[in-house]
């Protein structure tokens, strides 16, 4: 394990359940892989821009002269993509917001899902160029989505698994921090998730 990339999204700082559990996971990974570099990318502290026209052109042009001319516009997407591809393990610690992912995380995804870098269309479909890497999702939510009537409302885990498999990352484990808004469940949600982190097969 050379590098672990941890993406954190919640703007709730020390109150954040996903960050608290991500800290537990970071400590366990640090014990297991003391020589691995842990890169923590905090999208609340350093928000990313939405993918705009010039960046889109810069990262999708097939014309080498235009690519050279638009190098600066591609810089941030290049950096984020290099960072991901240099990592063996990706951790995404995110809240559920309005049944989906926060737009801050979507902005990161839009900058790293790139033709020729992380995926490539082939005759028989799509080739994920980030294959071989693993991912762990730490998903915090007010409700419960692993089971029960709200399960179909979860557009976080299915979407993240889909987009990660699109770029070739299919070895994905999930830690749930759920029931944060349910009084009977909230006190145990982080301790339960921390226990699940300790039991993760890593
Ligand atoms: C803007 C916003 C939208 C939310 N939407 C949902 C939701 O759709 N479903 C849900 O179960 N919880 C929802 N919640 C609750 C959060 O998922 C919950 O508080 C979780 O702990 C947030 O993660 P964090 O503690 O890491 O910030 C929402 C919270 C906020 C602030």
Descriptive overview:
With 202 residues, this protein is of the alpha/beta class. The protein has one domain (3-199): 3-Layer(aba) Sandwich (Rossmann fold), CATH 3.40.50.360. Helix content is 39%, strand content 21%. The chain has helices spanning 17-32, 53-60, 64-69, 71-85, 103-112, 157-166, 186-199, and strands at 3-8, 37-42, 89-95, 119-122, 125-128, 134-141, 171-178. The strands form two sheets. A five-stranded parallel beta sheet has the order 2-1-3-6-7, sandwiched between helices. Strands 4-5 form a two-stranded antiparallel sheet. Helix 1 (17-32) links the parallel strand 1 and strand 2. The radius of gyration is 18 Å and the shape is globular. The mean pLDDT is 97. Flavin mononucleotide (FMN) is lined by residues 10, 12, 16-19, 95-99, 140-143, 180-181.
């Amino acid at each position: 394990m050379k590098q672990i990339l941890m993406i954190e999204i919640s703007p709730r700082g020390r109150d954040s359940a996903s960050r608290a559990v991500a800290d537990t996971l970071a400590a366990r990974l640090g014990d297991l892989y003391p020589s691995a570099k842990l890169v923590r990318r905090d999208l609340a502290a350093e928000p990313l821009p939405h993918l705009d026209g010039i960046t889109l052109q810069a990262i999708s042009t097939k014309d080498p002269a235009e690519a050279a001319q638009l190098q600066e516009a591609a810089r941030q997407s290049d950096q984020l993509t290099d960072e991901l591809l240099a990592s063996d393990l990706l951790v995404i610690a995110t809240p559920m917001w309005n049944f989906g992912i926060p737009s801050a995380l979507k902005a990161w995804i839009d900058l790293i899902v790139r033709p020729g870098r992380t995926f490539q269309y082939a005759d028989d479909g799509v080739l994920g160029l980030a294959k071989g890497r693993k991912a762990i999702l730490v998903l915090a939510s007010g409700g419960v989505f692993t089971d029960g009537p709200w399960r179909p409302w979860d557009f976080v885990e299915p979407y993240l698994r889909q987009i990660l498999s699109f770029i070739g990352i299919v070895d994905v484990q999930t830690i749930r921090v759920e029931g944060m808004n349910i009084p009977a469940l909230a006190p145990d949600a982080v301790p339960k998730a921390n226990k699940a982190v300790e039991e993760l097969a890593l």
